[in-house]
Amino acid sequence: MSVSLFGGTTPLVAAWLVDRTGNQMMPAYYLMGASLIGIVSVIALRETAGKPLPGSGPSVGTHAEALAVLRQASKRVNVKKAYLAVVKERA
């Protein structure tokens, strides 16, 4: 969406800026401002490499670890009751 909003309107905005100011360098200033916004955005982002994403399932390294995660999950949720509740809602 941002590409269509900013990329598609850039020639129009650049022509308007030159027309309003009479300064042929206004498109360059416009691009510098957009670049500054991008740089600030990138600096403000937190690094998420090596961390699970919010809402994603657990990641495991071994088969035994996967089994342990499944055992813990099955203790928390009664799968049969959950399945029957879904079937009952759809009926």
Automatic annotation (TrEMBL):
The keyword Cytoplasm does not apply. GO terms for cellular component: plasma membrane. Keywords: Cell membrane, Membrane, Symport, Transmembrane, Transmembrane helix, Transport. It is a multi-pass membrane protein. The chain crosses the membrane at residues 28-45. One of its GO terms (molecular function) is symporter activity. InterPro entries: H+-coupled_symporters (IPR051084), MFS_trans_sf (IPR036259). It is found in: Cell membrane. This is General substrate transporter.
